[in-house]
Write a structure and sequence with these properties.
Number of helices: 1
Radius of gyration: 18 Å
CATH topology: Neuraminidase
Helix content: under 10%
Order of helices and strands: EEEEEEEEEEEEEEEEEEEEEEEHE
Shape: globular
Low-confidence stretches: 298-303
Structural class: mainly beta
CATH class: Mainly Beta
Mean pLDDT: 94
Largest sheet: 4 strands, antiparallel
Number of domains: 1
CATH architecture: 6 Propeller
Distance between the termini: 49 Å
Length: 303
């Protein structure tokens, strides 16, 4: 197994706000999104970590996250609702996460070990103390896990699924809490990692139970032990590193998204690869992200 801290340019597409990389095991493809442009990208990953044959699917408004369902369809976090985008047929509404008039949008999301989809929110206005992390249940209802966040972001679970890790970006904290895979019950959250610089963004976990965290503003991906000890740093030639995910049939490739959002002209000139997709092979395997289990077909379209 290759071990390196060096990153390569995985694909030359530039995203305004690249986010949410995920491995699609059904199509053997890497998915990622450009949130502000409302695009979901899909491309082939080769053995060297490069991604080619990229296609994109546009959605109205923003796209906070995408995940793959057991039947091959996608669950897509649109601006305020969750959508189902089937392999064939029409996209349909699934559940409303945010009331229509509120200046907020969906952000990072991911299936839990049992296949239920979690999604968080981000404020587009001045109020950034009441963002939520919710879970879409199998009957189509929403369960609130947190309702006091500043910016709900990356999610990850321990290898046995018994611990949920979640990022609150503007608080600069990663929370940990117990998680029951069967019932979805959660324990009391605690601050596992607190940051003095940069902003934690997207996150994933590896088979050793370590966390890989994208550090917005620092141009880094950091690896932390389950106890919250900083163990390793991978440098990325873009200041705004937004998310990370392990990809590949044997998930050994770490895919890294970045953004051009909020960079000055001087910063863009200094970091011309900002917004692009990178990869590295850090010598550990990731935990495969579970497929979304879906909801009953009788679920009605969301207004």
């Amino acid at each position: 197994m290759t071990i390196t801290d060096a990153v390569i340019l995985a694909n030359p597409i530039t995203c305004e706000l690249g986010e949410g990389p995920v491995w699609d095991p059904i199509r053997e493809a890497v998915l990622w999104v450009d949130i502000r442009r409302g695009l979901v990208f899909s491309g082939r990953l080769d053995a060297h970590g490069r991604i080619s044959d990229v296609e994109h699917v546009p959605f109205p408004g923003t796209v906070g996250a995408v995940a793959v369902a057991e039947d091959g369809s996608w669950i897509v976090a649109a601006a305020k609702t969750l959508l189902v985008h089937p392999a064939t047929g029409s996209t349909r509404g699934l559940a409303r996460v945010i009331p229509g008039g509120e200046p907020r949008r969906t952000n990072d999301g991911k299936p839990d070990p049992a296949g239920r989809f979690l999604i968080g929110t981000l404020s587009l206005g001045d109020d950034s103390q009441n963002e939520v992390l919710v879970r879409l249940e199998r009957d189509g209802s929403l369960t609130t896990i947190d309702d006091d966040l500043t910016l709900s972001n990356g999610l990850a679970w321990s290898p046995d699924g018994s611990v949920l890790y979640s990022v609150d970006t503007l608080r600069r904290v990663v929370f940990a809490r117990s998680y029951d895979m069967v019932t979805g019950a959660t324990g009391e959250r605690r601050a596992l990692i607190e940051f003095a610089e940069g902003f934690p963004d997207g996150m994933c976990s590896d088979e050793d139970g370590h966390l890989w965290i994208a550090m917005w503003g620092l141009g880094e991906v950091r690896r932390y032990t389950p106890d919250g000890e900083h163990q390793r740093t991978i440098r990325v030639p873009a200041p705004h590193v937004s998310s990370v995910a392990f990809a590949g049939p044997d998930p050994e490739t770490l895919v890294i998204t970045t953004a051009t959002q909020d960079l000055t002209d001087e910063q863009l000139a200094a970091y011309p690869l900002s917004g692009k997709l990178f990869s590295t092979q850090p010598g550990v395997r990731g935990l495969p992200v579970p497929l979304w289990s879906g909801v009953p077909e009788k679920q009605k379209e969301t207004p």
